[in-house]
């Protein structure tokens, strides 16, 4: 094990060892790493694995040699290290952007590569955890005689929707009956427009639907199914689903601000798995603005808005009368009005960055609201930060996530699609000015308090993670004694 001869790092070899395997995407890596930190902090060695392509991207984003990622890093009372396996696609092959081809390559190359990785570990492995899109990880664990688990990276509500669809336990919209209202235990009636879009008969993304549903094919072989949510947020659906599949809520999986000292407040070097280099000037720029004045805008790492939407969003933000921080990835810059970024920067009213340290941004006192695509990571980060939202979902689980934020949590408003500038202005004003906005802020603050309570010592999430660690400690005992 690299680096274990120095200081106290040799302790890692005597700890229970968990291998976690992530699908190669930022939205999957983030929650799995955060789960890894929580587990490691209890005195566990966690080896977090993904593909060689992810290793190269992490190395570039952090300006760190790939080899250094394998060094165990202290987190609380434990350690985290990274290892990677070949996905069977050459680094410069454009096929990497084709999900069909990537999934086929992972299914072919991944199982033997992961099995070899696990076998060569210098510390006995107690269990293997994966996240969606790579269900074959559970099969590898079974072949190796190891217990396994899954971290579901979307809401418990969305888990229940997919579970009932996959097992034909409820009526869903179909080509013959597209207007079905879905009735599921623990959830309000769901109209077609409330469902994950991949389940609609009109969805053009059949591959994404199939990839998601594939995880449910061998889910029964998992010893644990964790969910990135918390009891206070989704108690009813978690309880209602338990008679078919027990979900263990271990969220919200977010990172504390750096000043709190990283995971569990240990003050050691922060462990990250960023695939994009964050614009640190975002924080300095926010510091030049008054409390609750800035509109923060991000549609995540996958969604790309049309040229018309980008133009309407741009002018709507500018005409809102508030400063704004807008994450516009490089592949979307050309859709902006000519000279827009330069003009708003010169006026001091807007900053456009390619990527931001989102949790730090949302925690900043200058942020008034978050215009979000409602990906589940962003949804939990908004609730944990207590920031009101303007919900602008695009596809998949973002649609029910937006419904939860607006209707169940009451922390924002829905921006109709496609966006037009007058609606952008109206929605921003609705969550930032007046009595309605004040009520929204109060509810957002209440959800922040509930999230903090779940994560705190003795909270629901803390109890579930400690119970899991105790289980793997018993599993590891014969190998580590």
TrEMBL record:
Enzyme class of the recorded protein, top EC level: transferase
Swiss-Prot/TrEMBL keywords: Glycosyltransferase, Transferase
Domain of life from the UniProt record: Eukaryota
Pfam families found in the cross-reference section: Glyco_transf_N, UDPGT
Coiled-coil boundaries: none
Keyword Glycosyltransferase among record annotations: yes
GO MF assignments: quercetin 3-O-glucosyltransferase activity; quercetin 7-O-glucosyltransferase activity
Glycosyltransferase recorded as keyword: yes
UniProt-annotated stretches for the region Disordered: 249-268
Domain Glycosyltransferase N-terminal: from-to ranges: 18-56
InterPro entries: Glyco_transf_N (IPR058980), UDP_glucos_trans (IPR002213), UDP_glycos_trans_CS (IPR035595)
Enzyme Commission identifier(s): 2.4.1.-
Similarity comment: family membership: Belongs to the UDP-glycosyltransferase family.
Protein's name in the database: Glycosyltransferase
Annotated organism of origin: Zingiber officinale
């Amino acid at each position: 094990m690299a680096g274990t001869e120095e200081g106290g790092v040799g302790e890692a070899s005597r700890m229970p060892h968990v291998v976690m395997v992530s699908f190669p995407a930022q939205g999957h890596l983030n929650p799995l790493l955060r789960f890894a930190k929580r587990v490691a902090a209890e005195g566990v060695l966690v080896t977090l694995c993904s593909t060689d392509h992810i290793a190269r991207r992490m190395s570039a984003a952090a300006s760190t040699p790939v080899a250094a990622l394998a060094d165990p890093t202290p987190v609380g009372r434990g350690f985290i290290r990274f290892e990677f396996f070949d996905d069977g696609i050459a680094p410069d092959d454009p096929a990497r952007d084709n999900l069909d081809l990537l999934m086929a390559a992972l299914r072919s190359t991944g199982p033997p590569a992961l099995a070899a990785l696990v076998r060569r570990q210098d510390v006995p492995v107690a269990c293997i955890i994966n996240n969606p899109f790579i269900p074959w990880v559970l099969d590898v664990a079974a072949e190796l005689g190891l217990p396994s688990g899954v971290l579901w990276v979307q809401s418990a509500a969305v888990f229940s929707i997919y579970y009932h669809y996959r097992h034909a336990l409820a009526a869903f919209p179909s080509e013959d009956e597209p207007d079905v209202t879905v009735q599921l235990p623990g959830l309000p009636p769901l109209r077609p427009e409330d469902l994950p879009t991949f389940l609609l008969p009109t969805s053009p993304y059949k591959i994404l639907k199939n990839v998601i549903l594939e995880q449910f094919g061998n889910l029964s072989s998992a010893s644990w199914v964790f969910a990135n949510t918390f009891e206070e947020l989704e108690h009813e659906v978690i309880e209602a689903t338990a008679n078919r599949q027990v979900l263990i809520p271990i969220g919200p999986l977010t990172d504390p601000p750096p000043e709190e000292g990283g995971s569990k407040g240990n003050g050691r070097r922060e462990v990250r798995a960023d695939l994009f280099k964050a614009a640190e000037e975002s924080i300095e720029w926010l510091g030049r603005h008054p409390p609750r004045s800035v509109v923060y805008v991000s549609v995540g790492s996958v969604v790309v808005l049309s040229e018309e939407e980008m133009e309407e969003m741009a002018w709507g933000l500018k005409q809102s009368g508030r400063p704004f921080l807008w994450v516009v990835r490089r592949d979307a810059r050309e859709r902006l009005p000519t000279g827009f970024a330069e003009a708003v920067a010169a006026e001091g009213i807007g900053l456009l960055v390619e990527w931001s340290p989102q949790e730090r941004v949302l925690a900043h006192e200058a942020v008034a609201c978050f215009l979000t695509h409602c990906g589940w990571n962003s949804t939990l980060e908004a609730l944990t930060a207590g920031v009101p939202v303007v919900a602008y979902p695009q596809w998949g689980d973002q649609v029910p996530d937006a419904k939860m934020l607006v209707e169940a949590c009451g922390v924002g408003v829905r921006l109709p699609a496609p966006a037009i500038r007058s609606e952008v202005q109206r929605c921003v004003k609705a969550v930032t000015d007046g009595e309605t906005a004040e009520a929204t802020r109060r509810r957002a603050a209440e959800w922040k308090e509930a999230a903090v309570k779940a994560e705190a010592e003795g909270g629901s999430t803390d109890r579930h993670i400690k119970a899991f660690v105790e289980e793997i400690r018993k599993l590891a005992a014969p190998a580590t004694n």
